[in-house]
Amino acid sequence: MAETVLDVRGLSCPLPVLRANRALRGMAAGERLRVQATDRASVADFHAFCRETGHALVAWSEEGGVFSFVIRRRGDPSSPGSSTDRAEGQDIVSG
Fold it and tell me: For 3-77, CATH number?
């Protein structure tokens, strides 16, 4: 399954989370979204967003002022634990 990349560099709170939420709504359970942001507040924002929505914050890192978050779309509520990791690829979505 492809990993979608969402570039929200240069946007400030709350736009990175809002754009990520919109992208995740169009994805299937278990798919991954990689978000690239420059807003320092996005670290706390994405932790809270994933905790509150049930999506999994798989990883995050910071390099050269760019924060990268990997979020796995939550599974279908009727079948918990149904999400799986699949082959890597990338689609680019610009914010």
Answer: 3.30.110.40
Nearest-angstrom CA–CA distance, 6 and 94: 6
50 is annotated as an active-site residue: no
**Catalytic entry in 1, 13, 18, 56:** 13
What CA–CA distance (Å, rounded) separates 52 from 60? 17
pLDDT tens digits for range 71-82: 999 986 543 443
Q: pLDDT tens across 17-61, in order?
A: 999 999 999 999 999 999 999 999 999 999 999 999 999 999 999
Q: How far apart are CA 8 and CA 79, in angstroms?
A: 31
**What pLDDT is recorded for position 87?**
36
Count Cβ atoms within 10 A of the Cβ of residue 51 and give its class: 0-12 exposed, 13-18 middle, 19 or more buried: exposed
In the chain, where the domains are located: 3-77
